[in-house]
Amino acid sequence: VDKPLSYQTTIDGKLGVWEPQNSSKGFSYRPVKLRRALAQSINTVSVQLAEKVGSSNIIDLANDMGITSKLENNLSIALGTSEVSLFELVQAYGVFVNNGKLKKVRWISTIEDSEGKMLEDYRESIGSKHVISETTAYTMTYFLRGGVEEPGGTSKALYNYGVCSNNEIGGKTGTSNNYVDGWYVGVTHDLVTGAWVGGADMRIHFENADGQGGRTGLPLVARYLQLSLADSKTGIIRGKFKQPEGYDVDLICYYIAPPISFLDSTDNPLDSANVDKIHIDFNEEDVNEEDFEE
User: Fold this and answer.
1) Which 3 state secondary structure label does DSSP give 7?
2) Cα–Cα distance measured from residue 30 to residue 101, given in angstroms and rounded to the nearest whole number
3) Using one digit for the tens of pLDDT, what is the confidence trace for 172-227?
4) Of 14, 46, 239, 251, which one has the fewest beta carbons inside 10 Å?
């Protein structure tokens, strides 16, 4: 449920209260699908999920996926409050695209001479290990696609670059406090691309929402993907994420919300027109308000 949250915490040795906020500074006070919550960057839902999973478990998985920077063991980890490098983020997102395998990123893949003769090829020497199941990896790509496919998704600007046609694409925005940093990581079935816009001096930052990751990092990723798809030499092509054999996860994100005439947190109807064709039966008469009380 997208609602106000309050946690007792200790900051610099002093007791305090942490109240996570959405970028909109408001709340819908309604249940939200996890896929849509991720798509719309609803922070309150992310924090509640972290509370259920446990921040220590999140840290362990992040480490397995290639995050080596120190992560603070608290619920704010769900909002990306610990500092990590763009290199680490791209490597971690690569696990989802590589069917659950962690592949160490190399700065140089091949070396050629002026005539195009291959001198060194490091691509095959990149080792890998399974850190999550193929099922989990594919399900995560489905969730990341929500940013493009769900109403109010923060990745919808990708449509403006012509990279979504006949192409499954997903991604996640990121914005630090006071618009100091803007992040975006985009994924397709054969490419992971990340961008960071910020400065070494945190006193230098945007003054308004123009500094959000969706307005800074996303255009850079979109343009790079646009050029990669246009150049046949890159080998990057349009397509769908490969579904694992025997995949039996029910991807229906059920609406655990009151009547569909209600609006979500972005004032959009509770539907998902661009998501996989899923038939959802919903009868207003079956709704019992007590079922939604905590």
Assistant:
1) strand
2) 36
3) 999 888 888 999 999 999 999 999 998 888 788 888 888 889 999 999 999 999 99
4) 14
For β-strands 110-112 and 101-103, DSSP reports them as: unpaired
Q: Is the dihedral of CA 235, 237, 239, 241 positive or negative?
A: positive
Give the residue extent of every domain in the chain: 7-292
State the DSSP code for 242: P
Measure CA 153 to chain center.
Answer: 11
Closest CA to 206 of 216, 196, 214, 195: 216
- CATH for 7-292, among 3.40.710.10, 3.40.50.920, 3.30.300.30, 3.30.365.10? 3.40.710.10
CB of 127 within 8 A of CB of 104? yes
The count of other CB atoms within 10 Å of the CB of residue 67 is: 18
Residue 60 corresponds to which tokens in the numbers above?
Answer: 């362990």
Identity of residue 260: I
CB 194 within 8 A of CB 93: yes
177 Cβ neighbours under 8 A, 6+ residues apart:
none
Q: Could you tell me if 122 and 147 are in contact, meaning their C-beta atoms sit under 8 angstroms apart? A: no
Residue type, 91: Q
pTM above 0.85, yes or no: no
